[in-house]
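Structure in, sequence out. Go:
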């Protein structure tokens, strides 16, 4: 119901005025108060200020230490809390009217004991340490040249990109087996454990990298869970832990066989550089050849000296023949060893060439060509089969045509007209054409470039043409600018 024109408007205040009144009431009431809670999500800002969350079991409040206060605390050696610390914070409530939000502006911290999460971390650390899960003698060295590298991390995180980039750069011939796991939140620990079990059961995987990017103590808590720690300890495959940044330490880091400061460093620890391996192999081959040549030369000189010392006619004929046999055996043995080492080196070089990206791409291209040929053959067979079906249907229609009633014939002519209208040949008969490039239909002009060879299908016949210029329409240009 519309109010009467003479109805009086109730008294009101603006949103700005209300916010200012609340700001005055709250900030004057809560000045320099001590608040006890646990620090979480501590994030230093590039401006020098520090943002954090102060929480307990039932509530939390956003807090901030302005740059000047943070510099003063650091300058005079004041207590600087981190994630998980339980603190007493002296500060005031500040309201920001444009957003209607409030925060706790802190000017001083005092320690108030260990936070709940930090205490749980220390308890689990002591218990697992007493069981020997952190001992050095149980840690294994990752293999020098693994067959495949398993990775347990988030499929969308930066850690996955860093690991893949380093692995492909150092050893592109070694495959990566990724287990996309949830690394934060409810159920993340079970997901990481499932990933470790799945990758350890893969016969190709010789080393596993588990981790994620940096974050607060809460963000990294999945890797402080007992289930994850015991799964790492029980894994039959060596594990490299790369959780958070260099300053972050988790239970997973302590249990794993090796700990990397970053995901990129974990990838460097997992695989060697292929170029370094090839350089080392070349050096070893050269050293082996020189050593064998020197040894053969020394033995030859020794045999020559012995032969000169043997004088004919003094009864040393048998010994001379034995020495000759020994010399022949030694020549054969040295030749066999050289041939064996040469065969091993050639096998390694052949394996590396087969795993080279160019060779692998060529094999994949040949497989694609075979599949394309099969697809074209299947398409031609399908078209031939459908043509036979259509001809059979046409023959049947011709046989039953005289027996149809007038109404049935009219319906049949209507259906045939609709079928003809839907046929691409009908469009071609009306003057339209179909443009193809490389066997694919071209739908937009911007897909072509000047100088491109194209094929134009018409109602009767086809044309081979070359693009002289490309003029995309306005809608297509707008779509490209938006992208």
């Amino acid at each position: 119901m519309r109010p009467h024109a003479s109805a009086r408007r109730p008294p009101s205040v603006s949103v700005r005025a209300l916010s200012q009144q609340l700001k005055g009431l709250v900030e004057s009431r809560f000045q320099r108060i001590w608040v006890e809670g646990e620090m979480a999500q501590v994030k230093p800002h590039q401006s020098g200020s520090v943002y954090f969350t102060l929480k307990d079991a039932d509530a939390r409040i956003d807090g901030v230490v302005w740059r000047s206060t943070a510099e003063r605390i650091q300058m005079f050696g004041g207590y600087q809390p981190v994630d998980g610390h339980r603190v007493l914070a002296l500060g005031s409530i500040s309201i920001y009217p444009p957003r209607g939000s409030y925060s706790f502006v802190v000017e001083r911290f005092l320690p108030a004991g260990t936070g709940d999460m930090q205490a749980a971390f220390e308890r689990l650390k002591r218990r697992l340490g007493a069981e020997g899960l952190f001992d050095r003698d149980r840690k294994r060295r990752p293999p020098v040249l693994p067959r495949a590298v398993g990775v347990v991390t988030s499929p969308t995180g930066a850690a996955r990109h860093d690991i893949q980039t380093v692995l492909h750069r150092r050893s592109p011939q070694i495959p990566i087996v990724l287990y996309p796991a949830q690394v934060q939140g409810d159920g993340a620990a079970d997901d990481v454990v499932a990933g470790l079990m799945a990758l350890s059961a893969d016969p190709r995987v010789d080393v596993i990298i588990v981790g994620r990017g940096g974050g607060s103590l809460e963000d990294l808590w999945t890797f402080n869970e007992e289930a994850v720690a015991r799964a790492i300890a029980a894994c039959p495959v060596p594990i490299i832990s790369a959780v958070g940044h260099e300053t972050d330490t988790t239970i997973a880091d302590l249990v794993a066989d090796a700990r990397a400061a970053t995901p990129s460093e974990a990838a460097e620890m997992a695989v060697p550089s292929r170029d370094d391996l090839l350089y080392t192999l070349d050096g070893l081959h050269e050293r082996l050849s020189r050593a064998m040549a020197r040894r053969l030369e020394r033995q030859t000189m020794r045999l020559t000296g012995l032969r000169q010392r043997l004088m004919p006619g003094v009864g040393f004929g048998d010994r001379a023949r034995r020495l000759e046999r020994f010399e022949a055996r030694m020549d054969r043995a040295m030749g066999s060893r050289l041939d064996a080492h040469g065969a091993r080196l050639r096998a390694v070089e052949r394996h590396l060439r087969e795993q080279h990206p160019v060779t692998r791409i060529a094999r994949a291209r040949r497989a694609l060509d075979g599949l394309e040929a099969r697809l074209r053959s299947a398409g031609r067979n399908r078209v031939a089969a459908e043509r036979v079906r259509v001809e059979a249907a046409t023959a049947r229609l011709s046989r039953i045509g005289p027996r149809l009633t007038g109404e049935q014939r009219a319906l049949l002519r209507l259906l045939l007209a609709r079928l003809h209208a839907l046929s691409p040949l009908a469009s071609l008969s009306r003057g339209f054409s179909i443009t193809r490039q490389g066997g694919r239909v071209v739908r937009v002009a911007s897909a072509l470039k000047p100088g491109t060879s194209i094929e134009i299908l018409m109602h009767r016949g086809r044309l081979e043409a070359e693009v002289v210029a490309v003029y995309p329409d306005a809608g297509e240009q707008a779509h490209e600018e938006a992208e």
